[in-house]
Write a structure and sequence with these properties.
Blueprint: E1 4-5, H1 6-13, H2 17-26, E2 36-37, H3 39-56, E3 60-74, E4 80-94, H4 96-161, H5 167-222, H6 233-236, H7 239-263, H8 278-289, E5 316-319, E6 322-324, H9 325-332, H10 336-345, E7 355-357, H11 358-367, E8 371-374, H12 379-386, E9 394-396, E10 400-405, H13 411-422, H14 425-428, E11 437-441, E12 446-450, H15 456-463, E13 471-477, H16 484-496, E14 500-505, H17 514-522, E15 536-539, H18 548-562, E16 565-567, E17 573-582, E18 586-595, E19 598-599, E20 603-606, E21 609-617, E22 626-627, E23 632-638, E24 647-651, H19 654-674, H20 684-687, E25 694-702, H21 705-716, E26 723-732, H22 737-746, E27 749-753, H23 759-768, E28 772-775, H24 778-791, E29 796-813, E30 817-827, E31 829-830, E32 834-839, E33 842-854, E34 857-858, E35 861-862, E36 867-872, E37 883-892
Parallel strand pairs: 5-8, 10-12, 10-13, 13-14, 14-15, 25-26, 25-27, 27-28
Antiparallel strand pairs: 1-2, 3-4, 6-7, 9-16, 11-12, 17-18, 17-24, 18-23, 19-22, 20-21, 20-24, 21-23, 29-30, 29-37, 30-36, 31-35, 32-33, 32-37, 33-34, 33-36
Length: 897
């Protein structure tokens, strides 16, 4: 069995060897680090250590304390009873002297160890220096001996070669060689001594430098001041004492919480000793212990940690296209009243739930010192629209033609003739014109016609910005001329900015006069080509079929001039012509494909609706699998009925299509709420921006054409440099859905003179919040519009002098100061009116008349020729001979002549 040495035992129990040797010495056993240790010696050392620790652990002090108090507890019947409470506390403290002795002993041992290490270091340095000197000396002597031996060998070899030379020469050579050898030996010895001395100095310098560095490090550690004792009660107190005291505290806190529960938030009395908090107990412990720990106690976690910000916090405010005032306030972390106040300073009145636009919100946020990040809420919509395969080459497409005109001018007959002659006879019997669009094949190409009775779809398309029509055919009867609905069709065509081809119908009648039609149309900007204009005129007869081919050729020629092109391959896009809800098939939409190819099974995003195309039919009711540009088809499978004029687009992902559709629905609702106050005549002044000319858009309808002309002329004459009247539409007859849609799209008001709106028009007016007014007297109409325009002008203010008084004497009053005794010379003097004090006809003060008395009575008015006392507010320098001028400010409303 291998013997256990002191060194191995120290490594095993992880104790320094010197400390273990010292412990053996304290136990009465003399050992060195290489001596063996027996089992009996180990037991002797262990018993010695147990005795030492037992003596040190006895230095403890235990204190017990009892406190008694009385607690009032509410009982039944409103009576309270007193309960005696006894709190017992037991605290154990560690003797500080034992700790000090242990610390002093540890410091003494550390000091002894440091001294031993320093002594060993100095001895090692001295030994290293002596060894370096001896080594250098030995090397120099050995080198000198080797050089001397080498020279001796060389001399012996030379002596053998020159044995035949004369003796005297040999003697001289020997002497010279000997002298030279002695000189060389002396030189070598000197060099060896210098080399040894240099190495010795270098080693000594290196050892001294290392010793100085170690000494500095040791001295820095030894002389480092003791850090401030930040230990608290939980460090200096023993584990058992802490556990006992914490358990006692928990019992007290638990009893207090139960008491609070039974008392139901009853406030504690001042004399109750249990109001002492745990923080106070901790401070009491620190005070009992004393020492440095009490000065640097950590703050309690129950203390409020909120501090008022030293400066304003600038935030990044993300603003969408529309936002309410309350949402903007939440993003800036301020109250809504501050945002409303900031908007009022900028001249905008708003409530906390009002929707404001992005620009206004940006100005408010920047005014309040925040950084604004504008966010486009339609990013997903743009991403979906951009993720489409539309890179194919452009190809020519068929024109889309809308036929408009008066209902009695043969529009229906013209459509029927074109349809019956240009469609195969075998299919003629199966034609059911129920989708509102069809296409015909001619010798020169294909033409797509849109049937828009009432022009509702056409106006809705223009209102939504969807230019679905390429060419408009204006049908005018040759025997009837231009009618009001013809003028309305011209207005719609000009608003859509599409070319107009005039078809003069009923040319076969004897009373037909095409030249009269041309003359009448020139008044509305439709000029024939032969007269230098841009509009083509074709004389046709829907009954006899005269000029139909010429009309189709004119359409194709106009289309060729327009150079209509579209992408034939790729994902399709189009516009909704009509839509309705079928009881058996669900939502049905007629879509006119503008570009690409619409296939069965495609995912279509159409306005607020979306879905997969489950079936497609053409104008003949036949099932089709694909439809190219300028082809109208009827599709099934949408989630709801889209609105006429909505754009239909094929997308890749049905999930994203649903998200975009839901976003559009929410956006439409926000925009509708935001524009509720628009188009109102009363709010026209609020809508006018500073430095711009406000326009009052009007849609005018009357019972006769003469009234329309008279009212239009009168309203246009009301225009000024600040407010202009613009009549965007006028006509004869009742207010139709077309008029309401036109007014909603153009942000206009509708004026009806002896006419009323039908049911469909009223629905649009109510849905779009259009302002509608009825009149029966032309003067009332003009006066009301003039009054509304006058309200948009800034008012003027005028000062009118109502009285003049001369100061005859001045009195002193303790209440009002200087009182002027006056004689009213002109007009009347009224109390609380603004006044001016004139001295030598020069205004020296302008203020308010505070006191007006006649004798000792307060009066409100003094007439001409009477005496009175006048007290001027905040002015005492009134002198005899001054004139007091009383005036009032009158608001003069501006009117439009």
């Amino acid at each position: 069995m291998t013997d256990v040495t002191v060194k191995s035992l120290a490594a095993e129990i992880q104790t320094p060897v010197d400390r273990l040797v010292q412990q053996f010495a304290d136990a009465g056993i003399r050992k060195s680090e290489d001596d063996a240790v027996s089992q009996q010696e180990k037991e002797t050392l262990l018993s010695h250590l147990n005795r030492e620790h037992g003596q040190a652990g006895s230095g403890k002090l235990t204190l017990q304390r009892k406190t008694r108090s009385t607690l009032n507890i509410p009982g039944t019947g409103g009576k309270s009873k007193s309960v005696q409470i006894e709190v017992r506390k037991k605290r154990t403290y560690v003797k500080g002297d034992a700790e000090a002795e242990q610390q002093a002993q540890a410091e003494a041992e550390a000091e002894a160890q440091r001294e031993a290490e320093e002594k060993a270091r100095r001895e090692a340095e001295e030994q290293a220096r002596r060894e370096a000197e001896q080594k250098a000396q030995r090397e120099a002597e050995e080198k000198a001996k080797r050089e001397a031996a080498d020279k001796a060998k060389r001399e012996a070899a030379e002596n053998e070669k020159v044995t035949n030379q004369p003796t005297d020469e040999m003697t001289k050579a020997t002497q010279s060689d000997k002298a030279r050898r002695e000189a060389e030996a002396a030189e070598l010895k000197r060099k060896a001594e210098e080399e040894a001395r240099r190495k010795l100095e270098e080693n000594a310098r290196r050892v001294a430098e290392e010793a100085r560095r170690l000494a500095e490090e040791k001295s820095a550690e030894w002389e480092k001041p003791d850090e401030e004792d930040t230990s608290d009660y939980h460090v200096t107190t023993s584990t058992h004492a802490r556990q006992a005291e914490d358990e006692n505290d928990r019992e007290v806190e638990g009893g207090r919480s139960r008491t609070r529960t039974t008392k139901a938030a009853r406030p504690a009395k001042k004399g109750n000793k249990h109001s002492e908090a745990k923080t106070d107990r901790e401070e009491a412990r620190a005070a009992v212990r004393g020492g440095k720990g009490g000065k640097h106690r950590k703050p309690s976690s129950l203390q409020q940690g909120f501090n008022k910000p030293a400066q304003a916090v600038n935030r990044d405010v993300i603003i969408g296209e529309t936002i309410t005032v309350s949402e903007l306030a939440n993003k800036m972390a301020v109250k809504g009243s501050l945002v409303i106040k900031a908007m009022m300073k900028m001249g905008a009145m708003a409530t906390i739930n009002q929707v404001i636009d992005q620009e206004t919100a940006q100005l408010v946020a920047e005014e309040m010192g925040h950084k604004v990040i504008l966010r486009r809420e339609n990013e997903l919509e743009e991403a979906v629209m951009d993720d489409r395969d539309t890179d194919a080459a452009q190809e020519s497409r068929a024109p889309v033609v809308t036929i408009m005109g008066h209902v009695d001018h043969g529009k229906t007959s013209l459509l029927d003739y074109i349809r019956s002659t240009k469609v195969a006879s075998g299919e003629a019997g199966g034609i059911t014109q129920h989708i509102g669009a069809y296409h015909v094949e001619t010798d020169n190409g294909m033409i797509t016609f849109l049937d828009t009775p009432g022009h509702a779809a056409f106006t809705a398309m223009r209102a939504r910005g969807a230019q679905a029509t390429d060419i408009v055919i204006l049908v005018v009867a040759a025997d009837d001329g231009v009618m009001p609905q013809t003028i309305e069709a011209i207005q719609h065509a000009k608003a859509a900015k599409v070319p107009v081809v005039v078809a003069v119908n009923k040319i076969d009648k004897p009373e037909a006069d095409p030249d009269r039609v041309k003359n009448e149309l020139t008044q509305y900007g439709i000029i024939p080509e032969e007269w230098g204009g841009e509009n083509m005129f074709v004389n046709v007869s829907a009954k006899a079929g005269t000029g139909i081919d010429d009309l189709l050729n004119a359409i194709l020629l106009q289309a060729e001039v327009l150079e209509l092109t579209a992408i034939r391959e790729g994902m399709a896009s189009g516009v909704v012509i009509e839509s309705f809800l079928d009881k058996g098939r669900g939502p049905v939409a007629t879509v006119l494909v503008r570009e690409g190819t619409l296939n069965k099974g495609d995912i279509v995003l159409c306005g607020f609706e979306y879905g997969r195309v489950r079936a497609m039919r053409d104008e003949l009711g036949r099932e089709v699998l694909a439809a190219g540009p300028s082809i109208p088809v009827e599709i099934l499978g949408l989630s709801g009925v889209p609105a006429a004029g909505d754009e239909a687009t094929v997308v890749r992902d049905e999930k994203k299509a649903r998200e975009v559709a839901l976003y559009r629905q929410g956006k439409f609702r926000e925009v509708k709420l935001a524009r509720q106050q628009k188009s109102k005549l009363e709010n026209m002044f609020a809508n006018m921006t500073e430095g711009e000319v406000s326009e009052l858009n009007i849609v005018l309808k009357s019972d006769v054409q003469g009234s329309v002309e008279a009212i239009s002329d009168s309203l246009l004459k009301l225009s000024t440099d600040e407010v202009k009247v613009k009549i965007i539409g006028s006509g004869v007859g009742g207010i139709t859905e077309t008029d309401a849609t036109l007014a909603a799209a153009s942000n206009a008001i509708i004026l009806g003179f002896n006419v009323r709106a039908d049911a469909s028009a009223r629905r649009v007016i109510e849905a779009e919040s259009v302002d509608l007014r009825y009149y029966s007297v032309i003067y009332n109409l003009i006066d009301e519009v003039k009054a509304a325009m006058s309200g948009m002008l800034a008012p003027e203010y005028k000062q009118q002098i109502i009285g003049l008084a001369e100061v005859r004497d001045v009195f002193k009053s303790p209440k009002f100061g200087a009182i002027a005794g006056c004689m009213v010379t002109e007009g009347n003097i009224k109390r609380h009116n603004p006044i001016r004090v004139l001295r030598d006809n020069v205004v020296i003060y302008e203020g308010e008349l505070e006191s007006l008395r006649r004798f000792k009575d307060d009066v409100n008015e003094v007439r001409n020729g009477m005496e009175c006392g006048i007290g001027v507010k905040n002015y005492n320098d009134v002198r005899v001979g001054d004139m007091i001028e009383v005036f009032e400010v009158i608001e003069v409303k501006r009117t439009i002549d």
